Every structure is written in structure tokens, then in C-alpha cells.
Model the fold of this input.
Amino acid sequence: MPILTRYVSSLKGAVTRYANSHNLAFKWQHSYHDHYIRNYRDGNNISEYILNNVAKWEEDRFYTEDRDYNS
Done:
């Protein structure tokens, strides 16, 4: 198993245990896309995506107003 996959799996397990122990309603998305940051420009592109992703959520094809995203 690649090291990034192991790290993400470990992180998700720790966060899930924390959420469960504090009675927090929390679920992970079913999968993720791992990507190695290859250079400075690649890192900047990923940072911009993360920063802008939330602001664009209502434009996303999976967004619906009546859906509870916290359960």
C-alpha cells in the first residue's frame, strides 16, 4: 500500500474515532483522489482549488439545497 494511502487511511480513522467519541455527526466521502504534489506550481494549483472549492459548492453538479450534507 502506498505511503499516502496509509496516511490518509490512518488520518480518517483517527478523525472518525474522535468524532464518534464526541458524539459528532460525521461521515467521510466514499473515496478520494490522491495526488503527489510534483512542484511549486502544482502545489499552488491544489491550494487554489482547496481555497475556492467551498465558495463554488452551490455551483457543483452534486449540490442540492434540500440535502443534509452533515449526515
About this structure: Helices lie at 3-21, 40-53. Residues 3-59 form one domain. The chain has a mean pLDDT of 83.
